[in-house]
Amino acid sequence: MDKLLRGYCRLLEVLIAACLATMVLLVFGNVVLRYAFNSGITVSEEISRWLFVWLTFLGGVVALHEHAHLGTEILVSKLGVAGKKACLVGAYALMLLMCWMLFSGALAQTKINWDVSAPSSGASMAWFYAVGLVFGVSAGAVLLNDLFKVLTGRVSEDQLIMVKESEDQK
């Protein structure tokens, strides 16, 4: 499962890079057209905004997989192995609940907006809200994989605190 998730995250990284490159081209091209030719690309702002939302959520999945989110461990670090494990399992349970809530809310929004057209592109607004579905499923898979490792004892004691301090980011 780890190999599959690593491959999936590599694919997400490529998609993130493509989103960023497209955003840069659209915005830069629109700026040049506005200043040089007094015209512009109507859908540029809307598509850039959608790509930014997708880029952010997909980046969140990659960061979750790499345990790259910052956190604090002041309380948990003072606990024993069983306490650390209990806190981590509880944290995973809460994160999985949040993934389910985000998924179900995004599913409702996607259904509601299926027939609603975006103002400038005319595309279905469901595409905008579908990122919540992708994030909910992807983050859920990452969290379930990590939770499985904790419950089966495949995590060492120093890995029971899965946060990074700001000093660790250097």
TrEMBL record:
* GO term, biological process aspect, one: C4-dicarboxylate transport
User: Which GO MF terms are attached to this record?
Assistant: transmembrane transporter activity
What keywords would UniProt list here?
Answer: Cell inner membrane, Cell membrane, Membrane, Transmembrane, Transmembrane helix, Transport
Q: Where in the cell is it found?
A: Cell inner membrane
Does the UniProt entry include the keyword Transmembrane? Answer: yes
Pfam families, per database record: DctQ (PF04290)
Q: Which InterPro entries match?
A: DctQ, TRAP_DctQ
Recorded family membership? Belongs to the TRAP transporter small permease family.
Q: Which PANTHER family match?
A: 2,3-DIKETO-L-GULONATE TRAP TRANSPORTER SMALL PERMEASE PROTEIN YIAM
Query: What does the subunit comment say?
Result: The complex comprises the extracytoplasmic solute receptor protein and the two transmembrane proteins.
Q: Under which name does UniProt file this protein? A: TRAP transporter small permease protein
Taxonomic placement: Bacteria, Pseudomonadati, Pseudomonadota, Betaproteobacteria, Burkholderiales
